[in-house]
Each structure stands twice: as C-alpha cells, then as structure tokens.
Amino acid sequence: MSASFYQPDTVTCNGEQFKIFINRQQIDERISQLGEQLDKDFADKKPIFIGILNGAFIFLADIMRHVSIPCEVDFMKLSSYGDEKVSSGQVTELKHIDAKIEGRHVILVEDIIDTGLSMNYMVKRMKEENPASVSVCSLLHKKEATKFDVQIDYVGFEIPNAFVLGYGLDYAQEGRNLSQIYVIDKEND
Ligand code: IMP
Questions:
Q1: What spacing in Å lies between the alpha carbon of 113 and ligand 1's midpoint?
Q2: Rounded distance between C-alpha atoms, residue 124 and residue 136, angstroms
Q3: What confidence tens digit (pLDDT) does each residue in 114-135 have?
Q4: Inside any domain, residue 15
Q5: 108 C-beta closer than 6 A to ligand 1
Q6: Any residues with CB less than 8 A from the CB of 29 and at least 6 apart, and which?
Q7: Is the CB of residue 17 below 6 angstroms from any atom belonging to ligand 1?
Q8: 8, 23, 82, 114 - which has most CB atoms within 10 Å?
Q9: Cα–Cα distance, 132 to 141 (Å, whole number)
Q10: 53 lies in a domain?
Q11: First vs last Cα of the chain: how many Å apart?
Q12: Is the pTM here over 0.90, yes or no?
C-alpha cells in the first residue's frame, strides 16, 4: 500500500517553522487553468517546455499533464541560492539543455521568480539560440522583490515577499517533497 501525499498543516525545516500557505486544491485548480490557457496559446506550435532544476520539477510534471497538445520537455539547471534564504546574486549554469531550440517555441518553467535574476539570465540565454519564441511560466511570483526585467507570461500565484517551501521549493535542499506550499511562520521565529 502506498502512503498518501505528504501534506501536514505545519512543518519544521532546518529548525524553522512553516505553516500552510497554498493548499493542494488551490494549486490543482490554478494549474488546470494554466494548462487550458497553454493549450489555446500553443495549439499547432508543438512547444518545448524547459524546466529549471531543481525547484521546477514538480510544477513542470503537473503542468505538462494538464496540457493536451503535442509538446516536448527538456531541463536546464541553475544555481543562485546555495543553501541560504537569500540569493547569492550570481547565476551559475550547472546543466544546459540537450534539445536544439532554433525555430522552436520555448516555454521556460520556473517554480518561483524572486529578484528575477535567474529568469532574466535564462531568457537571454535561450534567445542566443534563435528560438521562434520564448515564454515564461512561473508557479509563484514575488512581485515586490523583483528587480530584474522579466516578462512573465503565465503565473500561478502572486505572493508577498516571504520565504516559501514545498511543492518543489526547498530550504537548504529540504522540503521539496511537501505536496503543498508553506510560508515561514514569523510568529514562531
Ligand atoms: P531569483 O533569481 O532571485 O528570481 O530566484 C529564483 C530562484 O530562487 C528560484 O528558482 C528558487 O530556487 C529560489 N527561491 C526564491 N525565492 C524562494 C523561496 O521563497 N523559497 C525557496 N526558494 C526560493
């Protein structure tokens, strides 16, 4: 018998307390809406989804299964956070895509856009390879924290500038396996 999804009401991760912020039902409903939108916008375009590892792996897996048009997938791996809660301010490319994207419609899939540094880098990097188009799809967006110029075409949820965890997002590499999204609980700091 398999265990059910891991979705407690509160969780401690690396000694800090987190509480539920966006639950499974809210995530599922929003992803289903985004899937419908992508189906319309990319009908007959055979897009290639490029997931940005590690954080986007769960969102990417879910959103792709809500899309019913022909599509492909590939991955890129970036690092800018290290094990801290604030960005190091530098993007390091740890893995590049294998696919040839010249003339293709690319959809960059990210877990969260915070300062926008990583996505700003990704869009420029993709454009160097002459795709037909580059669109950005992010599950979360911390609008108040965004300093770099990024056009976000599809966003799951706009959120305040607080540290979040779960559904692929980590704190020092832990907590990605939580199936909902949690926010740091300031009252328990
Ligand atoms: P940006 O380059 O500052 O936009 O940061 C993007 C990356 O930082 C994301 O892909 C995440 O890996 C990480 N990140 C930003 N905010 C959070 C957060 O609240 N929780 C977990 N990871 C985050």
A1: 6
A2: 12
A3: 999 999 999 999 999 999 999 9
A4: no
A5: no
A6: none
A7: no
A8: 114
A9: 25
A10: yes
A11: 38
A12: yes
Q: How many domains does the chain have?
A: 1
The domain of 179 spans 25-39+46-77+91-188
Contact, 81 vs 110, CB < 8 A? no
Q: What is the CATH number of the domain that holds 184?
A: 3.40.50.2020
Q: List, in order, residues 6 or more apart from 100 with CB less than 8 Å away.
A: 129
Whether 19 maps to a domain, the answer reads no
Q: Is residue 4 part of a domain?
A: no
Catalytic residue among 62, 111, 114, 170: 114
- Cα–ligand 1 centroid distance for 131 (angstroms): 25
- Residue 114 CA to ligand 1 center (angstroms) comes to 5
pLDDT in tens, 67-97: 999 999 999 999 765 566 666 678 889 999 9
Map tokens 């899309």 to a residue.
67
Positive or negative, the CA dihedral 99, 155, 25, 171 is positive
